[in-house]
Amino acid sequence: MNGESFLQTILRAGKPNLLLVGSDLAIDAAIHGLSTSLAVPLHSCVLPGPLALPKASNGVLLLRDVAALDGAQQRELLRWLDEHNRCTQVVSATTAQLLPLVERGAFDKGLYYRLNTVLEEVDV
Question: Which of 22, 25, 28, 73 could tie 69 with a disulfide, CB 3.0–4.6 Å?
């Protein structure tokens, strides 16, 4: 693919939401590798902490440690996603597997499927 990864090709083509799962080091490397494929502006939110959602409906929202979202933050993010109907690409990252959290009811199923348009498990 002329030096471009499969994931970069997907991101350029349709700008789907992307969920990265792996170690912090692997996630950092993946985000660095994707940086040229991500639209601007790039809004970043590191969790746990306040959920800082951009007012603009463009660019990329990067959510670090998305598994740390509490229930209220999950509902807020899901409402924001509904309002920004695919105008902003969401790249979320976590070291935790989210599906077991969904199965236990600790992570919203609808939000999981919205964030998990493309799942990429990354390794160093």
Answer: 73
Take residue 13 and report the two structure tokens written for it.
């083509």
Q: What is the pairing mode between strands 42-46 and 18-22?
A: unpaired
In contact, 49 and 64? CB cutoff 8 Å: no
Label residue 90 exposed, middle or buried (CB < 10 Å: 0-12, 13-18, 19+).
buried
**How deeply is 102 buried, as exposed, middle or buried, from its count of CB atoms within 10 A (0-12, 13-18, 19+)?**
middle
pLDDT digits (tens, 9 = 90+) for 18-68: 899 999 999 998 888 888 778 788 888 889 999 989 887 788 899 999 999
pTM summary value:
0.83
Domain containing 38 — which CATH number?
Answer: 3.40.50.300
Q: Within a domain: residue 53?
A: yes
Contact (Cβ atoms closer than 8 angstroms) between residue 19 and residue 119: yes
Tell me whether residue 38 is in a domain: yes
If one counts the domains in the chain, the total is: 1
How far are the Cα atoms of 12, 17, 103 from residue 62, in angstroms, in the given order?
Answer: 16, 10, 24
